[in-house]
Each structure stands twice: as C-alpha cells, then as structure tokens.
Amino acid sequence: LFTNSFASALIPALARVPNRIGHATEYRSLLLTKSVSLPEWQNTRHEVYYYLNLVEAVGKLVGRQVVTKPLDGSLEVSEAAHQEARKFLDDCGVRRDRPLVALCPGSINSRAKRWPADRYAVLADRIINELGAACVLIGSKAELDVSLAVKSRMTQDPIVATGKTSLSQLVGLLSQVNLLITNDTGPAHIASALGRPTLVIFGPTNPLTTRPLGQSAEILRHPPDCAPCMLRDCPIDHRCMTAIGPDEVFETANQILQRSTASVLHL
C-alpha cells in the first residue's frame, strides 16, 4: 500500500486481503499484516525513494533481492498523439512559428499550492505581449474555475484547454510546448518527464521530496519560516506564494525559453 492514509489500509483489511504491507503511518499498523518503519530520511529525499523503501521491504519478505536501477521517469509520446495534439493547436489557431507556453494555475488536492490567479494573468499577458508566444491554460475539469479566473483578469485571449483533454491527450499537448509554468501539480511531472522545459512555483510543499525528477525542471521558491507546512489551505496570509511576483516568474521563464531556443539552434 503505497499511500499512507488510514482508509487505504482499512479497505484491504475489510476485503480480507491476506497480505497487507505498508508504512506505519496514521495509526494503521493494526490493519497491516506487515508494517514497515518510516525511514529517517523521509523528509530529505525524494518521495520515489520512500516508495522504493517499501518495495525493498516487500522483497525481503518474499526472499528476493530488489535491485534499484538508475531512476528513469521519462515518457515517450506516440506519433499519433503528437499529431492529435498538433491538430488541436491548429484548430485553436496557434501558429507553428510562435513559442507555445502552457500555464497550469490550478491544483486538485490543495488550494494552498495555487499561485494567485491575478498573478498568472499578469504573467500570461506579458508572455503573449512581450515574447510573442501563444499561451494555453491546462488542467482538469475540477480546475476550470481557476483557469477562467485567470482568463477574466487578462487583457489578451489565451487558449483554455482546461477540462477539454483526457490524461493521454494532455500528455500529447505537453509534448508540444516550449515551456510549462505550473504549481506543484501532476502536469509538472509529466512535462518534465517528456523533457520539456518546466518551471514549478513551490510554496507549502517540499521540493526535496516532490519536485519533478526530470533534468528539464526548475523551481521558484521563497520559503518563509512556516514552509513547508503541507497544508491544503493557508491559515494565515499565503506568504509562501505571494512572495513570488509575476516579474520574477516572467524573467525566469524568458531565460528558460532563450536557453532552450539556443540549444535547438546549436543542435
């Protein structure tokens, strides 16, 4: 059981699954047939190692040695998915000679992880006006209200793809972007795994444990004393996110785009 919640252990126990192995968290040890102690480095190494720790414990239980290979979280996209994404962008009027920047202003499991919508709006307008880029807003149907809030505060007209793509279609779409700017959300990991330049705005979460593993990801973070708190809602003034201004994000994004363009020209 990779997840740490009480419910994730209760359901298999009620279903009488004979072997239930998981980390000893949230008072759920009585629901597990084998509890694995939490590693001391839990909050200082990436979560992928936390889950590999559980895999290694399972291996010991069944008498098999688990060999940990170099981590490779890369994704490949089929030519059909590329073509479908390109057609979607063509239908939206995105010119192929312009950079394409995707923004993911929402987050499903935590409102505290959201950089303010008005700042995304300022950022998106500058990306369109000053960089000549097309801007597409992405996310799930549950995040549509956030994307619409960003659009309503803009002077330019972005493409709103939020809620209009399946997960596989989103992967195809992200394979086309020159840059993704996002909160600490799933698309950050997808774009980075695709090798696309990715800029992640971090606030209440811990980049040591949850940042994208890909080499193409960069983070922006100005943590106050209370961060990382891992809370779903900020009980005070959201200072971990409001400390990051749109000018800083724009300048960082511009530098990333210039580097990626130079790399393409060099190749």
What separation lies between the terminal Cα atoms?
Answer: 44 Å
Beta-strand level of the residues, as a percent range? 5-15%
Helix/sheet category: alpha/beta
Number of strands: 8
CA-based shape: globular
Oligomer: single chain
The average pLDDT score comes to 92
How would a textbook summarize the main sheet?
6 strands, parallel
> Which blocks of ≥5 consecutive residues have pLDDT under 50?
none
Radius of gyration: 21 Å
| Succession of helices and strands | HEEHHEHEHEHEHEHEHH
Number of separate helices = 10
**Helical coverage, percent range:** 25-40%
Strand order of the largest sheet: 5-4-3-6-7-8
Question: Notable features of this structure?
Answer:
single chain, alpha/beta, 6-stranded parallel beta sheet
Task: Outline the structure in words.
Helices cover 40% and strands 11% of the residues. With 267 residues, the protein is an alpha/beta fold. A six-stranded parallel beta sheet has the order 5-4-3-6-7-8, sandwiched between helices. A two-stranded parallel sheet has the order 1-2. It is globular, with a radius of gyration of 21 Å.
Structure summary:
With 267 residues, the protein is of the alpha/beta class. It has 10 helices and 8 strands.
Strand-helix topology:
Elements (H helix, E strand, L loop, with lengths): L5 H9 L6 E3 L10 E3 L10 H15 L17 H13 L8 E5 L12 H15 L2 E4 L6 H9 L6 E2 L6 H8 L4 E5 L2 H8 L4 E4 L5 H4 L6 E4 L18 H4 L3 H21 L1
Parallel strand pairs: 1-2, 3-4, 3-6, 4-5, 6-7, 7-8
